[in-house]
Design a protein that fits this description.
By secondary structure, this protein is mainly β. It has a single domain, classed as Metal Binding Protein, Guanine Nucleotide Exchange Factor, Chain A, CATH 2.170.150. Helices cover about 5% and strands about 40% of the residues. It contains 1 helix and 11 strands; from the N terminus they run βββαββββββββ. The protein has an 8-stranded mixed β-sheet with strand order 6-7-8-9-4-3-10-11. A 3-stranded antiparallel β-sheet has the order 1-2-5, with no helix packed on it. The mean pLDDT is about 95. Bound molecules: zinc ion (2 copies).
């Protein structure tokens, strides 16, 4: 790993993502049912970056669903190993989401925002979040 970039990858390594170091990440924990089903975990954690700082290598497939806003939320996953690695939202032009876990870095910045807490599993707590929403950020 070089110092100019931070790197993320899927399980099999077929898709890699390089982010220019110093690009600010907006890290969100989402407890919505779609993120629960998407990840298989009680919540998803996505770091959103300006797309100008994100470089993607490898083939992905995508799955789009309607977010609560009625706009598309698209997951981009590795067709070989199935890891969901990248995200785009019609509501957030110019930014790309990267699964926080794909960085495999215990020192990765923690979530600052916790959304869809109305379906949060009752043992889960996001102590680093300074913003909490029962639904989406706008709802
Ligand atoms: Zn893969
Ligand atoms: Zn969600």
């Amino acid at each position: 790993m070089d110092r100019d970039h931070i790197n993320a990858a899927c399980q099999c390594g077929g898709v890699t993502v390089s982010v220019t170091a110093g690009t600010t990440a907006d890290v969100n924990a989402c407890h919505c049912r779609d993120c629960q089903r998407r990840t298989g975990a009680p919540f998803g954690v996505i770091a959103w970056f300006a797309e100008s700082g994100v470089f993607i290598d490898g083939e992905t497939r995508s799955f789009a669903r309607k977010a609560d806003s009625g706009r598309d939320f698209t997951s981009h996953f590795c067709p070989r190993c199935g890891s969901s690695l990248l995200f785009s939202a019609a509501l957030k032009p110019g930014v790309i989401g990267i699964a926080a876990g794909a960085f495999a870095d215990p020192a990765f910045p923690p979530p600052v925002r916790s959304v869809w807490e109305q379906t949060q599993h009752n043992w889960v707590d996001i102590p680093t979040a300074t913003e909490h929403y029962p639904r989406g950020r706008s709802g």
